[in-house]
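Reading a protein record of the kind used here takes only a little practice. The record below shows the convention in full:
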Amino acid sequence: MESSELSDRERRALAGMERLLSADAVLERQLRTMRLTPRDRALDALRDRETWRPRVLFAAVLVATTIALLVATVVTWQPGVAAAFSVSWLLALTVAFRRPGPARRRNLGPRTG
């Protein structure tokens, strides 16, 4: 079984790379001020299976319920069924247009310039 520790040569190589990268002031500033875009947050949420699978299942059940209530409203013309359809429709829209995850601001150091 191989060891996960780095050899002296590998440590020196990494230290040299870190020195070269930290000497680049433009790169240093870009990394310090980098922020996640809403698209990046959405892609992160989609990659996290434990987060999106229950949401997709909930949304599918909600859409099926909304469609069934719409059909029942058209067929029966009952005010209670129409109210239930309205509530489920608003809930479906809320779920559909909700942000994919909590907005987290990454602290990457002080922002300059």
